Amino acid sequence: MSNEFLRCIDGLESLSIIKEGLYKDTYRCLYKGRRSILSHYRIDNNPFNLDPKREFNLLNSIEGMILTPEPLFYDDESKISIVTEIEGEHISQLKDRQSLLSNLAKRLNSLHSYPANDFDYTFRDTLMAYGRQMEQEDEKNIFTAAIDLHDALSDEGGKNCLCHNDLHPENILVNEQIKFIDWEYASLNLPCFDLAYAMEHFEMSEDETVYFMSEYGVTAQDIDFKTIKKSQKLVRYVTFIWLLILSKYYTMNPSEMKLMTSLKIELNE
């Protein structure tokens, strides 16, 4: 397949596989003299309702934030996108944790404040697509709990903004400043989801959570810990449902199996 890409994409000079995945293969490449990342999506096997054109258009629209890879090429027929490769350290490799949390909070605040008037895809759309994959009774019960919790958070006054929705440490790179990669799950969502996702994946203590939120722009006395805890539970529900879907199509690795088992026990208590 790599030779076919080289023949059909003008300016593509080299290609080496990084990862073969369930719904896309990712390559490192040289495109018009620039170090880049090529993603080839297999939409016929796309249980997570991903849309590479939606992702590419979003990257184009928010390029001015200097928060994302630069979009370079997209072909809708072949479902191939090319973006610049961001060189830098994964944020988890930084030794100054306070600086890490501060910079992450400020960048999230910038993202959540960005006007997304031309973007209408919501996280609820993603959840409903996930729900269509739930076939067993226990799976349907988990999905119902997740969508009910999402809707309850929305009803409590949550206002949607542009969210990344997948901010684990491997998707955050640091060179001169923090940048986020892999925007395929981005949507309009409650900002508390991104914040809770970061709290979960960076295993923040209560003191770190207070500091993180203060750097985001919420004073200690205004932090709604009840909403944070609900949002963290929603993160766990969504992660578990994502793993359930993954297990239907893919041979999971031991760490994924361990996480799914742990979440199943926790969420069914």
Give a short synopsis of this structure:
The protein has 9 helices and 10 strands.
Would you give an account of this structure?
The protein is of the alpha+beta class. It has 2 domains: 83 residues, Phosphorylase Kinase, domain 1 (2-Layer Sandwich); 179 residues, Aminoglycoside 3'-phosphotransferase, Chain: A, domain 2 (Alpha-Beta Complex). The chain contains 9 helices and 10 strands. The strands form 3 sheets. Strands 1-2-3-5-4 form a 5-stranded antiparallel β-sheet, with helices on both faces. A 3-stranded antiparallel β-sheet has the order 6-8-9, with helices on one face. Strand 8 and strand 9 form a beta hairpin. Helix 4 runs antiparallel to helix 5.
Q: Would you report the number of β strands?
A: 10
Strand content: 15-25%
**Unreliable residue runs:** none
Shape: globular
CATH superfamily of the largest domain: Aminoglycoside phosphotransferase (APH), C-terminal lobe
Q: Which structural category fits the helices and strands?
A: alpha+beta
**Mean pLDDT across all residues, rounded?**
92
CATH class of the largest domain: Alpha Beta
Radius of gyration: 19 Å
End-to-end C-alpha gap? 47 Å
- Biggest beta sheet attributes: 5 strands, antiparallel
The percent range for helix content is: 40-55%
Main β-sheet, spatial strand arrangement: 1-2-3-5-4
Report the CATH topology name of the largest domain: Aminoglycoside 3'-phosphotransferase, Chain: A, domain 2
Helices and strands, in N-to-C order? HEEEHEEEHHHEEEEHHHH
Number of helices: 9
Total individual domains: 2
CATH second-level architecture of the largest domain? Alpha-Beta Complex
